[in-house]
């Protein structure tokens, strides 16, 4: 299951203003636009086939401007989408590629499959005498540890110059995933302040690399390599089958997520299997809005 089709993701989006409709196993996300009494609809990485007739009914019910479908890779066929008016879209709201690591393999085999660079940096990090602290969020008494995570995340945004929502929204996300996620911190032994963190989601048989944060010291001591390796080992210990890196830069869509290039190279050093989703498809339910959107695309080039 992709994280965006989990009940926890639905709870998170509901808490920040989205309406969720469930059709079979599909979660359909609807966002109202009060000023014009219309809505936008997105469906992300749902297992195929999609229930198109029911999606059409929901689009009419909520007076959708458009429906954006970002399909899951397995079993996808674009012909049914095109027959009912969907077209490939330049709009993309979630990743189109990721990397999966098969956790059914022995730990030594997984380690041997990593790039030479990754193995070397894991070993160097271990020699730096870093300690790892694991926090199961459903056992946390308050949000103290999660605030440490968010502090490291915002530090990373300053280093790499990208945007994340405020703490209030992240807290709502944490509340949704509290029973199904773990924080892994790294510390220098003589320092009580963590230098890196990974937020790991646990969904059925899959570990999901949700977010990360780090300091300059963390980079210099290669704590990010150590944390990913420790997260993989923990996922195996929990008897999970798959480790999902939850998105990388996709050269098939070079205009999307260019800021992901550097951390995508980091993730690729752990090798694994490349998973490529088909990319976004859109069906417009408002011709004026479609024209406005297309004009904006033309003049913003």
From TrEMBL:
Residue ranges of every copy of the BioF2-like acetyltransferase domain listed in the record: 117-245
Keywords: Acyltransferase, Cell shape, Cell wall biogenesis/degradation, Peptidoglycan synthesis, Transferase
Record Pfam families: Acetyltransf_6
A GO BP entry: regulation of cell shape
Family listed: Belongs to the FemABX family.
Origin species: Candidatus Daviesbacteria bacterium GW2011_GWA2_42_7
GO MF entry, a single one: aminoacyltransferase activity
Protein name: BioF2-like acetyltransferase domain-containing protein
């Amino acid at each position: 299951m992709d994280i965006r089709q989990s009940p926890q993701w639905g709870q998170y989006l509901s808490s920040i203003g989205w309406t969720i409709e469930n059709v079979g196993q599909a979660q359909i996300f609807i966002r109202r636009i009060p000023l014009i009494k219309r809505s936008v609809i997105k469906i992300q990485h749902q297992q195929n086939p999609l229930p198109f007739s029911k999606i059409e009914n929901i689009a009419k019910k909520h007076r959708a401007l458009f429906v954006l479908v970002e399909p899951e890779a397995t079993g996808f066929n674009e012909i049914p989408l095109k027959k009912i008016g969907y077209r490939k879209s330049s709009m993309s709201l979630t990743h189109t590629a990721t990397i999966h690591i098969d956790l059914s393999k022995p730990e030594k085999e997984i380690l041997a499959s990593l790039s030479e660079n990754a193995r070397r940096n894991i070993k160097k990090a271990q020699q730096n005498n870093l300690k790892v602290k694991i926090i199961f969020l459903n056992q946390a008494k308050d949000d103290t540890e999660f605030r440490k995570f968010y502090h490291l995340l915002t530090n990373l945004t300053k280093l790499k110059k990208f945007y994340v929502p405020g703490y209030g929204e992240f807290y709502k996300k944490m509340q949704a995933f509290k029973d199904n996620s773990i924080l892994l911190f790294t510390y220098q032994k003589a320092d009580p302040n963590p230098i890196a963190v990974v937020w790991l989601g646990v969904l059925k048989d899959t570990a999901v690399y949700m977010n990360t944060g780090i300091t300059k010291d963390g980079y210099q001591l290669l704590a990010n390599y150590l944390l990913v390796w420790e997260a993989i080992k923990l996922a195996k210990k929990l008897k999970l089958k798959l480790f999902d890196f939850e998105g990388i830069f996709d050269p098939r869509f070079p205009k999307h997520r260019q800021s992901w290039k550097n951390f995508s190279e980091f993730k690729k050093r752990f090798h694994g299997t490349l998973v490529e989703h088909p990319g976004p498809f859109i069906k417009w339910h408002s011709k004026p809005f479609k024209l406005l959107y297309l004009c904006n695309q033309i003049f913003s080039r």
